[in-house]
Amino acid sequence: MDTSALFVQKPGHISGQPVHRKKPAGLSQRSRRLQTSQGRQERLVVAAIGSEGKDKAKLKLGENLDDRIMSGEFSDVGSTKERLTRPLRKLLAQDPIGPGRVLALALARVGQRWRTAAARRMPVARGDIREIIGQPVFIPLFKLYQVYGGIFKLSFGPKNFVVVSDPQITKQILLTNAGAYSKGLLSEILDFVMGTGLIPADGQIWRSRRRAIVPSLHKKYIAAMVELFGDCALRGTAVLERAAAEGKAVEMENFFSRFALDIIGKAVFNYEFDSLTTDDPVIQAVYTTLREAEYRSTAFIPYWNIKPLLYLVPRQRRCLEALQIISDTLDELIAKCKRLVEEEDEEFVEEFLSQADPSILHFLVASGEEITSKQLRDDLMTLLIAGHETTAAVLTWTFSCIADRPDVVARIREEVDRVIGDRKPGIEDIRNLRFTARCIAESQRLYPQPPVLIRRSLEPDTLAGFEIQEGQDIFIATWNLHRSPQLWDRPDEFDPDRFGPLEGPAPNEVTEDFKCLPFGGGKRKCIGDQFAIFESVTALAMLVRRFDFAFAPDAPPVSMTTGATIHTTNGLWLCPKPRADLEEVRQREAAAAQGGNSAAAVAHEEPAAAGAASSAGGCPLQTAAAAAAAVSASFWAAWGWADGSWM
Ligand code: HEM
């Protein structure tokens, strides 16, 4: 089935469903067009989706929080007892005779003690959960952060969460006292899909799985993956060329979602989703499961814990069916891989990379480690989800950031023309695509994926002088850290130069001292950070060198909605147009490359042909694996990957 229609359409239609071009009623009052200091309006609207009626209800709830903040209710963080007795104290102080004034003085002294005691307690924002839901959850958290600062408690009836938006407190939780915290709520939410995979796992299981999986992402593997990224970018190029030729807009979130799925399928378990050009039940099953994971992470009542409802509620039944399809597919892939490992009889050495199948699954099976099929399935499912949604979101928001920035596009293009021309980038080239990489980093600052990290304290701790009880749920509000006006100059502006000279180190939680966490930090830091950066840089470079992108004229405004990552509400509709000087650049490249690895030749074929061309001669990764061996140590060190330091 040809899937291009799913994301290449006239902007008024998404997945075949007509979309009202007019903004929904009430949207305009709610729209927050973020004004940058240069006066440029970011096409960003904070909105909730839903029918008009639903929308109004949410609007009221969201505004309610704004009203309460405006009223100063949240700013008064002192003692309630002191506040309540203040009018009485004032009245008594007016007593002309004397006893009233003595009492007023006594009350003032007690009030002072109450205030001092209150200052030692963490500020608490009490409210109704409905004031938070119905909008991207990090938006109200940001508003409350502006009132309370780096640490406060968010309390809804019996439930409460500590919200952290301070770099040093974040560092303590993630790095210096990381042993005192678990994934808590996140493990509970993700159990149905990831089981004891790396993201939700804690304790001994986490330690042993991390020790087993991290070595599979070794240098040769990453270098081989860069080749795969280039092949997939060529297929994407072909899809965009067709859209450009037909003058159609492309829904880029869908496009990047499929792009990233194709890559992660091959990279993790050698499965050809080929979702940029086809659709099949496994792809549908993956998306059903992903959406369910997001639904569960934002739903208020976990009704799915009541077993019979799993079979009675249609969406839960669909999810069970999807999980079964994925589980069967993974079982087949595992069995196939085991057969291959037995047949090839290759010695398992450090940096093992199978020529026939360089996937992480192959590494894990070849390592000979005894693990249950269930654990292996959990590991693969975790890597599939962790490496897919995040990268797709990063690329989507990067393109949203650059679509109205011809100055940035020109700089990326100049760098790409100079470094790789029309070739696919090799591993060494990525080192020199430094401005392109900074654009990815800046987009990750503006749109952190995920926008909130979740933890639970395993033992009492003290954060910024406040006592934390065992079992306390904590949100680390990455969005707040990344957009804080106290921590960043012009925080809402897309400025890839803000991290200093391009020759300097790539920005991360260490260089930015935990005010920027593109991949988390400490012992639970992302294991796929280099994979993801190289993938995103390759895609950005290879698409920008070919196309100009402009916002589709009649498309809905770009707005955010919460999932595990930040999604667009109505898609990101862009019109790709071949860059004006494309022919000239091609001729120049053809003359220079003379029989080299010309991307132009491949990308002009149909996607299926591009895929076939990329795998001509067996595995397209063979040559890359060989080339990887030659990559210098200084290259890896430049990416913060000195031998051993990345584990
Ligand atoms: C741009 C893309 C990506 C982003 C923004 C991202 C972000 C993150 C973040 C912030 C964490 C820390 C979560 C926490 O502390 O609670 C994390 C963990 C993780 N990521 Fe990524 N990630 C990306 C790509 C990938 C890829 C490609 C893979 C695998 C190939 C991957 C695998 C993982 C795993 C397994 C963990 C859990 C590590 C542990 O708990 O030990 N990620 N990621």
- Give the N-to-C terminal Cα separation: 42 Å
How is the biggest beta sheet arranged?
A: 6 strands, mixed
- Any idea what the CATH superfamily of the largest domain is called? Cytochrome P450
Number of separate domains? 2
Percentage of β-strand residues: 5-15%
Low-confidence stretches: 1-6, 9-61, 598-632, 634-647
Share of helical residues: 40-55%
Overall average residue pLDDT: 81
Key features?
single chain, 647 residues, alpha+beta, Cytochrome p450, 2 domains, six-stranded mixed β-sheet, four-stranded antiparallel β-sheet, 26 helices, 52% helix, 9% strand, globular, disordered N terminus, disordered C terminus, binds protoporphyrin IX containing FE
Topology readout:
Blueprint: H1 4-7, E1 8-9, E2 13-14, E3 17-18, H2 27-30, E4 45-46, H3 52-70, H4 80-93, H5 99-120, E5 124-126, H6 138-148, E6 151-156, E7 159-164, H7 167-176, E8 181-182, H8 185-194, H9 203-213, H10 219-246, E9 249-251, H11 252-269, H12 281-298, H13 307-312, H14 314-344, H15 360-366, H16 373-402, H17 406-419, H18 427-432, H19 434-446, E10 453-457, E11 461-463, E12 466-468, E13 473-476, H20 478-483, H21 529-544, E14 547-551, E15 559-562, E16 566-568, E17 573-578, H22 582-593, H23 599-603, H24 607-614, H25 622-629, H26 633-638
Parallel strand pairs: 4-15, 5-6, 7-13
Antiparallel strand pairs: 1-9, 2-3, 6-7, 8-10, 9-17, 10-13, 11-12, 14-17, 15-16
Protoporphyrin IX containing FE binds next to helix 16 and helix 21.
